Structure formats: C-alpha cells, structure tokens
Amino acid sequence: MGMFVISKRPNGSYQFVFTSRKxxxxxxxxxxxxxxxxxxxxxxxxxxxxxxTFTKKSTxxxxxxxxxxxxxxxxxxxxxxxxxxxxxxxxxxxIKYIREAExxxxxxxxxxxxxxxxxxxxx
Length: 123
Description:
By secondary structure, this protein is α+β, with helices and mostly antiparallel strands. It has a single domain, classed as PH-domain like. It is built from 3 helices and 7 strands; from the N terminus they run βββαβββαβα. Strands 4-5-6-3-2-1-7 form a 7-stranded mixed sheet, covered by helices on one side. It is globular, with a radius of gyration of 16 Å.
C-alpha cells in the first residue's frame, strides 16, 4: 500500500507526494494554493483513477517518467525511471495501490523531526 503525503512548500503553497509501498516517491503534485486543493485532488485520484490519463515521457538524457492529468490539466509528475519497463511497472503499481493509500498531513508541522541541538541536549 502506498501513501499520500501532504506538505507545505517554503513559498507557502502545498503539494502532495504519492509514495510506493516501500516509501519511495512515485508522483509529486502540482503546487496548490490551499491544502484543501491537495485533498480534493487526492480524493479524485483515489476514487476515480480510471478517469485520469497517464502520459509517458522521456528526458533528453534517456530517463522515463509519466504525467498524471485530467482534462488536459497536468496534476502530478512521476519520478524518473531508468528503463521503459520500470516506467510501466511504476504506472501499474500506482493504479494498483492508489485506491488503498492513506493520507498523511505534514503541512502543519514546521519540522517533523527535532533539530540536532535538541537531540544533543537530551530533549
């Protein structure tokens, strides 16, 4: 099972990342002004993945990736894959596990992990 992780970018916008069962990022969303926009996109993807388009692309350096879109609007882009076979497996796993993915919201936490000074001080 994968998961959606919502976070806040340094510029104040929001994004989500869909990670694989092993915790590796698969898809990163477009920038959203409101957290509720991320949540709406996540719910739409989770509930109606068959209504979205997976467009396969490649970079000039020979890496492969895909874009997830609906109605011509790109909503997320995948990580880069080294081969076409891995790209196809990434799409297949996304379709297979996205419906059951839970959502984690780290957008309110300034820092999820304590800083090194707090750890050193024994706090």
